[in-house]
Structure formats: structure tokens, C-alpha cells
Amino acid sequence: MAYWLLKTEPEEYSYSDLEHNGSTVWNGVKNALALKHLRTMNIGDLALIYHTGKERQIIGVAEVTSQPYADPKLNDVKRVVVDLRAVQRVPQPITLRQIKQDSSFADFDLVRLPRLSVVPVSELHWQRLLQLSKG
């Protein structure tokens, strides 16, 4: 199993929307590196959902429920999507400020490549983020 961080603009599609819908097609990814990461996802992988914009915080956990496939709304085989389902909200949102202040995240792609919308998360970072979510 692999771990990921997926960014979304909460006014476009929030974790609350995912909870309400139960599942969704994760689409709209355009960046080549982000698409490369999306293509390596597998069923059962877990993803932290991160709200961008004014919030800049991790809100919840989702599970990948499909292998990557071509976006059915686009005529471009390079643009892939995956299906996600809501798992649970984190007990306490984790802000970007908290992450940046923690030296264990110095090499984390969320910090190093701030515009990347699909970020791999190492098991060590995943465990540390879950710790931070408990306050």
C-alpha cells in the first residue's frame, strides 16, 4: 500500500463533498509529475485530502477504489483519474504551518514542491501526520 496527499480547492470540491457523496472520480490533474504519481496509484492506497487556498490544511483520509484510468470526460489518454471514497476526517486538521515548522518534513514534497497537486507520502511522514492530527 502507498500513501498520498491530494490537494483540492475546498470551494470547488471539499472533503465535506466527498463525505456527502461517499465517493468521487478524482479528476482535473494536469501537471505531468502529478499525473505520473496518479498513474502509480493502486486500489487500497490511502490519501490525505488537503484543502488549498485560505485553509491550507489536511482535512481527511480517503481510499483509492480503482486503478487509474483515462478520464472519460476528456479525449486524452494521458489525463488519468482514480476513484476515491471517504474514510474519515482527521481528529484535528493539520495546517501547512504545522508541517513547515516540523523539521521531519524538510524533504516532504508538499513543502519542496508546493504547487504539486498529487504528492507521495512516505510511511514515516504518514505516521507523523497522523500523530499531528491527534493534537
UniProtKB/TrEMBL annotation:
<feature type="domain" description="EVE">
    <location>
        <begin position="2"/>
        <end position="131"/>
    </location>
</feature>
<dbReference type="InterPro" id="IPR002740">
    <property type="entry name" value="EVE_domain"/>
</dbReference>
<dbReference type="InterPro" id="IPR015947">
    <property type="entry name" value="PUA-like_sf"/>
</dbReference>
<dbReference type="InterPro" id="IPR052181">
    <property type="entry name" value="5hmC_binding"/>
</dbReference>
<dbReference type="InterPro" id="IPR047197">
    <property type="entry name" value="THYN1-like_EVE"/>
</dbReference>
<dbReference type="Pfam" id="PF01878">
    <property type="entry name" value="EVE"/>
</dbReference>
<protein>
    <submittedName>
        <fullName>EVE domain-containing protein</fullName>
    </submittedName>
</protein>
